[in-house]
Amino acid sequence: MNLKLEPQRFDELQVLFIREMVKNIKLKLQESGLEGEQLEAATANIAFSVASAIDDTAGIEAEGVEVRPYLTFRTNGDEVIHSGENSFMYEYVYSALRRLFGG
Q1: Per DSSP, which regions of 1-103 are E strands?
Q2: Which of 57, 60, 51 is nearest to 20 (CA)?
Q3: Is 103's pLDDT higher than 80?
Q4: How confident is the model at residue 59, as a pLDDT?
Q5: How far is Cα 90 from Cα 18, in angstroms, rounded to an integer?
Q6: Contact 23, 16 (CB under 8 A)
Q7: Which of 26, 49, 50, 82 has the fewest C-beta atoms under 10 angstroms from its C-beta?
Q8: Residues 6 or more apart whose Cβ sits within 8 Å of residue 5
Q9: Distance from CA of residue 89 to its chain's centroid?
Q10: What is the DSSP secondary structure assignment for residue 75, as one 8-state letter?
Q11: Kind and range of the H or E element at 100?
């Protein structure tokens, strides 16, 4: 694989990724019967939690092992885009929620 430093493209991809993740969380919660303010609050809580874990801001330790994810995006062929630092999708959760719930 060819690891390619492209911070701007990485940022565009992480925005798209978090939007899809938030949309899917909302859909699954709706299928479970949540609606209204409960749906919005649960979607926000789960989205922030998952984004923080992926962004490596959650401080994950499992079975005595520190787990430190580093997000990349695969593009054409064997190319992998990274930003040179950890992702920061949690910063885009709020705008993704606004797109889905208005406000």
Answers
A1: 2-5, 60-62, 65-67, 73-74, 79-82
A2: 51
A3: no
A4: 81
A5: 8
A6: no
A7: 49
A8: 82, 83, 84
A9: 5
A10: -
A11: helix 90-101
Q: What percent of the chain has pLDDT over 90?
A: 84
Tokens of 36: 């209204």
The answer to whether residues 2 and 80 touch, using CB atoms and an 8 Å cutoff, is yes
Tokens of 81: 């885009």
> Running DSSP on this structure, what letter comes out for residue 77?
T
Distances from the Cα of 29 to the Cα of 42, 43, 44, 60, 99, angstroms: 8, 7, 11, 25, 17
Residue 27 pLDDT grade (very low, low, confident, very high; cuts 50, 70, 90): very high
CA-CA distance, 85 to 97, in Å (whole number)?
A: 25
38-70 as b/e: b if 16+ CB within 10 A: ebbebbbebbbebbbebbbebeeeeeeeeeeee
DSSP states along 20-47 = HHHHHHHHHHHHTT--HHHHHHHHHHHH
